Hints:
Layout: E1 2-6, H1 11-22, E2 26-31, E3 44-47, E4 61-66, H2 72-82, E5 86-94, H3 129-144, E6 148-153, E7 155-157, H4 165-172, E8 186-187, E9 189-191, H5 192-204, E10 211-212, E11 218-219, H6 220-228, H7 263-267, H8 275-287
Parallel strand pairs: 1-2, 1-4, 2-3, 4-5, 5-6, 6-10, 7-9
Antiparallel strand pairs: 8-11
Helix pairs in contact: 1-5, 2-3, 4-8
Protein name: SDR family oxidoreductase
Organism: Kribbella karoonensis
Amino acid sequence: MRLLVLGGTKNLGRHVVEAALRDDHEVTLFNRGLTNPALFPDVRRITGDRAAPEALAGGEWDGVIDMSGFLVREVSLSAAVLRDRCGHYTYMSSIAVYASKSDVGMTESAPLLDWPAGAPEDHFTMDLYGPSKVRNESLLTATFGDRTAAVRSGFVIGPYNPDFGNWGWALAHGEPMECAARPEQPVQYVDARDLAAFLLHVTVDRLPGPFNAVGPTRTLAALAETWRSVVPDAAPVDWSPSVDRFHLPHDGSNDGTFHLSNTHTLAHGLHLRPDEEVARDYIAWVRAGNSPPDPPH
């Protein structure tokens, strides 16, 4: 299959490209060529900016996987160019799209955030992250119809990814794991390799979305103990560090964000590896000389 990956050289995008190459797909990368430019030397590259995606007008692809769509204006521009040049368009979205942060068991049909009146479509702020993902999903659906899917994830753990990287680093170096969120804080995550495989599956099989691509809900305390269990004599968890890496309210007002239903996504092919395997592999990656990237915010 001829695949176009928008982005593809950092974090989750690396796993997507690696998975596509393992399955013998013909991959083209479109990005600015600034991040890891030497990665995937045998893959065709189109260097360009999403604000001026005319370089894509000369190609055709069976599927597009969009890993870099943030600004609404840029997603709109690239979608207009690719509308008649691809079979299916898979968009990497976020669980930040949901209007409620407290409802438990939300499915993909739960109400989404509104677009703030007067908000700019060509400027990114964290306050616009969720609304921008909603707006991008909407414009892609308007452009591609049932030829598009939005894959919504939250924490993504694994090599090259920042989420829970401080835990992997601590366990790899015999240091205490730190967590400023409360122990009973619910959390859902997905391994980067499992998410990459699902993104590829959705694109190859041309499945319409959206999909809540998350694992089961567990508490941070339970997850921390699972991670500690893979390292002999692991130090106790420090639940009161000076740095809050999770940015989650302690009053539980955001707990619904991590009680999403993943039933629909599991039924359509998301496979989740055990927590122990996720932790063990991340620790091994760090011990091999790698460093977790800094969180994006």
